[in-house]
Write a structure and sequence with these properties.
Helix content of chain A: 55-70%
Distance between the termini of chain B: 90 Å
Structural class of chain B: alpha+beta
Radius of gyration of chain A: 15 Å
Helix content of chain B: 40-55%
Number of helices of chain B: 22
Largest sheet of chain A: 2 strands, antiparallel
Largest interface: A-B, 43 and 48 residues
Radius of gyration of chain B: 40 Å
Number of strands of chain A: 2
Strand order of the largest sheet of chain B: 12-13-5-16-17-18
Strand content of chain B: 5-15%
Strand order of the largest sheet of chain A: 1-2
Number of strands of chain B: 21
Oligomer: heterodimer
Structural class of chain A: mainly alpha
Shape of chain B: elongated
Largest sheet of chain B: 6 strands, mixed
Amino acid sequence: MNIDNTASQMRKGVLEFCILSVIKQGEAYPSDIIDKMKAANLNIFEGTLYPLLTRLKNAELLTYRWVESNSGPPRKYFMLTDKGADFYKELEATWSELANAVAALTK
Amino acid sequence: MKQVININFQGRVVPIEVSAYDILKAYVDSLSRHFSMEDGKDEIINDIENRIGELFQERIKAGAVCITDEDVNAIIKSIGRPEDFDDADPSATTGNTDAAEQNTQQQQQSSATNTSGKRRLFRDENHKLVGGVCSGIANYFDIDIVIVRIVFLVLLFSFGIGFIPYVILWIAVPSSATTVIGSRRKKLYRDNDEKYIAGVCSGIGNYLGINAWIPRVLFLLPLLSFASKNRWGNWGDYGDFNFFSFSPGALFIYIILWLVLPEAKTTAEKLEMKGEKVDMNTIKNSVVEEMKGVQERVQKFGKEAVNVANERGKVFGAEAGSLAKKGSRSLGDVIAMLVKGIVYFILGVVGISLIIALFAFGIAAMGVFPMKDFLLTRGWQNVFAWGTLLFFIIAPMIAVITWIIRKLAKMKTGSKMLKLGFSAMWVIGWVSVILLIASLSKDFRHSSNINEQEVFLSNPGVQSLEITTLAPGTRFTRNRWFSMEPFEGTDEDSAVIRNTTIHIVKATNDSFRVSMIRTACGNTRRNADTLASLINFNAEQKDSLLVIDQGININKVNKFRNQHVIITVYVPVGKKIKINDRVNTSSRINFSGPFNNNWERDFESIKFENLEDGWDEGEWYTMTKDGLFTKDGKPADSYRRNNKNRSIIEVREGKERLRIDRNGITIEDNNDSEGNYRYNDKPMDKFDSIKLNIKKEEKRYKDSLQKEKEKIEKQLEKYDNREESNTFLLKSLPFKNAMVLFN
């Protein structure tokens, strides 16, 4: 059993939740999401983010619109769908349960 | 040397090194292999490619000529290799996660410095306020940014020396936007969502991450202080200056920011407004872009040098040639750097001095503006004055500053409307100026009749008379064109103009006599006469003192129309006269000149005369039949006498000297004198004296001398005539800046 592997698995589990919560705060451009997560000390690669976003979008939790950018082609800005908002609420409930449980257990 | 190709990458044309292209291609291939099992494979690859393209563009925008291997590697590192990905898909999770985790940690550490992991100094664009220098330094030394900022601010305010290292670092240190791939910038926008007027303040608040009320209060403070000025009392001697410069100053800045800053319209811009920082950098970048032209030219020069080097290389061999190539290229770079630096400096100095000059002009105009009531009649003149101030002075100031900033920031939107608006205002300004000047010159067209009045002397038989101004205690401060009385503070409805001329002439009998002439201008002669008669100027004898006013009082009813007082003192032969030191130094009576701001210059010229043995203030002069003399026998008008003496002509040749002056023509055989021919200090054709030894040329010289003599005699005649007409000048006096006249 490798400690890094376990830690990585733990992080992976909450990644989607984190991304959804960033997007929930407002329309977001992928590199915004990366920046925000970096600011929270949660580093992911863009190469990790893009597939996740695509998956979430294909699952109809996210949608996007093209926004003209002043430099080059338009950018994709992601936002939550209604379904995504519901999904997020459920995740949030699960997370707070989990966080409480972990907090209680590790006391 | 590397080959560069252009690729069409996600709709962008990107110049890229062939080797870098290979790396990129391998990377994209590895990605598509990695995501081959994924549902939205194409979309994922497309998104990632798009992002890479964006990063490429940032690079090129930052001044990179093409995309290099390092660039591609840095980008790959930022986006991550397939084996690094924290794939949520469990099937993709293999033993690679170890490496992934390691990599993530590494990146976490290096994110504070650089993706390469090595500690390097860069300007932190993510946390910048101005240029990101402080935040970069804080990053580098791993200390709190606030400390660095405070140190810089203290240096800036205490000695002003913080500024120079900051600018140097700004220019020299690379930006994180080019060093740390994927980092972004804050930009200053106007925030339309939370605006009160134009969203300038809330935009600034967003940019600095502070509450929008802070900039709002800062902008409002000067205006508020204006409103409460009277309650606070006068702000010292420069109260008016404060009030008229600083509150419009804030308004100016607001309007300029309004015109210059784009409004945050799209979501992206709104995000940029908050997430990214102000762009002093855009200004800098645009300058850098312009510089590129220079650089290119310099590089061309460098290339030519390379060619020359190559030709020589034929002689020295291929190796020497390539060495020379290298050398000349770096030389070209150095020259480019130098030229860049110099042009930066010149541009900066020119720009800054231009702006300062503009502001100085505007502020001066506004500082004088409250004085307008002493000059302008109500009604149209006032309207024209306001038109002049607003459209002739302020509007162009704003226009020019806006233009400079927009030019620097390479902004183009809406400039047509601005141009039209400003040109219209400029036209209105011109019309106002012309009408104002026309109207004013009408008011100054006629001057009053000259009317010499006797000043009553209680004891004209005194032996001596000292001219002095009011006793000290009545203090006047000087404020540009006019002097304001500070004691009355809010009651600033009278001003003093220093427009007094003193003449001293010889009396015909044995008692002192003083006369006063008051003149003024007006739109009709009658009005001018009325204004002149309204001048209240006191001159009073107190024993041996003649006390005169320091200046002429004017007020808002009896406006400034070049009121002028000429005091003539008739001094009997054998009696003494003195002008008190105070008249010139502390009380600043003007000896001449229409405006008191001339007094200094005039005074200087008097001083100058003094140095040339002219009139001395505070010195007793005795009137003789030949004029005024000090007790040492120095004539008061020695300056003029000297001047007269200057019109002599002196010609020297060897030991002989020809001299023409008031006393006639003298020819001397002076054994001591040596030198060149001189005619009024100017070299003259060489000739021998009349008694010369070289006989064959004697006649020619005689003729030319004769001619000169005639000429000079004519001049002397003229001069004497003028002298006679000089004795009394009063007819031409109102605008004539005659100095103290002695006779």
